[in-house]
From TrEMBL:
Homodimer. The gene is folD. Its EC number is 1.5.1.5, 3.5.4.9. This is Bifunctional protein FolD. InterPro entries: Aminoacid_DH-like_N_sf (IPR046346), NAD(P)-bd_dom_sf (IPR036291), THF_DH/CycHdrlase (IPR000672), THF_DH/CycHdrlase_cat_dom (IPR020630), THF_DH/CycHdrlase_CS (IPR020867), THF_DH/CycHdrlase_NAD-bd_dom (IPR020631). The keyword NADP applies.
Amino acid sequence: MSLRIDGKKISSDIKEELKEQVKQLKEEGVSVCLAVIQVGNDPASSVYVNNKKKACAYIGIESQAYELPEETTQEELLALIDRLNKDDHVNGILVQLPVPAHMDEKEIIQAISPAKDVDGFHPQSVGALSTGEPGFVSCTPAGIIQLLKRSGISIDGKDCVVVGRSNIVGKPMAMLLLRENGTVTICHSHTKNLKEVCQRADILVAAIGKPKFFDESYVKDGAVVIDVGIHRNAENKLCGDVDYDKVADKVSAITPVPGGVGPMTIAMLMNNCVEAALRMNNR
Ligand SMILES: Nc1nc(=O)c2c([nH]1)NC[C@@H]1CN(c3ccc(C(=O)N[C@@H](CCC(=O)O)C(=O)O)cc3)C=[N+]21
């Protein structure tokens, strides 16, 4: 029998802790405010943005929603970011990705003040993660570390294999596992013998972006499997990068999709907002 790592439960524990902390801060006169910007009305993005608003409301974080039309120009968006950067009331700024094709995502990310970069996507935040300076950490990989720690799974000295090298998941995930003294391998589309490398993993992080790609032949007996994939089939049912039913009996612990990594992403975003407010108030 393997442990089904319950991301819903762990994320709700974290939200409970944050709610208490925010209440305490309010009594001391410190408020927390997140600005969420969405350009265009991609339905999937709208669902995520809504979930973020709901989480803010639950915890006691003020949320400002900026729903901009698809035709918004780069200059208009940069002007809004600039205004929010200068607004002392706003602690965190998030621009929902992806942005429409006519926009320059890189320039947008770099326009957000690193002090308010609750997504952890700014190059300064990314650099700080690799040198160990204080800075915001990308929410999904930060959430995965919390899932492991709060499930009593140690990372120290373990063989950790991360499959995927994106800026928002794979690369920061590798840096965080390294910070926890894991021995880290990053795999990608040019990796030879992907299966053999995965079979060595004590902790396998699957972020390849292909539905049910990993079956039992990729995992070692007793490994820990973290599934970062989110795919929706024709019936709107969610699945991950891992074929859960084929893998679950062979491993010691595994995250489901939904209810694994996804909910942690939002919990860590809330955590980063509180951290931004603490820093802005010199706490
Ligand atoms: N600037 C920016 N920051 C982000 O953090 C960001 C983004 N853009 N763009 C899109 C991705 C995706 N993302 C998710 C958040 C929560 C779940 C989540 O809660 N998933 C639930 C299921 C939710 C459902 O039913 O769809 C689960 O896995 O159990 C998933 C995905 C944040 N993203």
